[in-house]
Amino acid sequence: MCASGTKPRNQGGDKPGPGHIGHLCYNMLMDLSNIQQVVIALRQRLEPVERANQLRDALEGQRPNARQAAVLIGLFEQEGEATVIFIRRASTLRSHSGEIAFPGGAVDTTDESPVRAALREAQEEIGLHPARVEVLGIMSPVFTVVSNFLITPVVAFLPEGPGELHLQASEVDDLLLLPLRGLADPAIAHTEEWTRDGQARTVYFYDYGAYRIWGATARMLNALLELLMS
């Protein structure tokens, strides 16, 4: 099944290619509502956390001036559905304000690894206690052109759910708990070819109801879905 496209848009200073819209296709054989199936598949297919620095260093050689960051892709069961935790970034932030993202942020000098940074940021931003988090593995880092970050996605399972969460008002406007199966609906996803500084790149979009997920977050979401559907 493939996603239908929409008209290209000009966002963030980038320019879409001349009418070039791509379609995302996923193998829909896995039941993405079943959290146990999802977790088993991810344990088998994700990179081990021990490779976090190795994967980051390999890409850092291509982006020597990039800043390091990590995000937490948290999965848990809610009302019988495998659910993903997103945030809406505060509208007062200078960078990526109001956008939908995964909890996370810059790697501090005190963080021993990107995994530790993702756990720390998730606790700071939404009050998710690390004791509730079972890290399943990591995905390959993603580079953001606009903010010059090299982001390591850390994928985790919350066996007992997220618990009571408290949002950091200066960083987060809203908490979004979205069903994984709904996010894999090909009707809500498309890609566009944009050009920045003379270089073409593929930009991913997921329009889930009133929420538009795009950019680096959408790239990581696509990587997760492709991993599960492979």
SSE order and pairing:
Layout: E1 15-22, H1 35-45, H2 52-60, E2 67-78, E3 81-89, E4 100-101, E5 104-106, H3 114-126, E6 134-138, E7 142-144, E8 149-157, E9 172-179, H4 180-183, E10 189-196, E11 199-208, E12 211-214, H5 215-229
Parallel strand pairs: 2-8
Antiparallel strand pairs: 1-10, 2-3, 2-5, 3-4, 3-9, 6-8, 7-8, 10-11, 11-12
Give the tags:
eight-stranded mixed sheet; 230 residues; four-stranded antiparallel sheet; 12 strands; alpha+beta; Nucleoside Triphosphate Pyrophosphohydrolase
Q: Which outline best applies?
A: globular
Separate helix tally: 5
Indicate the percent of residues in helices. Answer: 10-25%
The CATH H-level homologous superfamily:
Nucleoside Triphosphate Pyrophosphohydrolase
Just give the CATH class: Alpha Beta
Main beta sheet: 8 strands, mixed
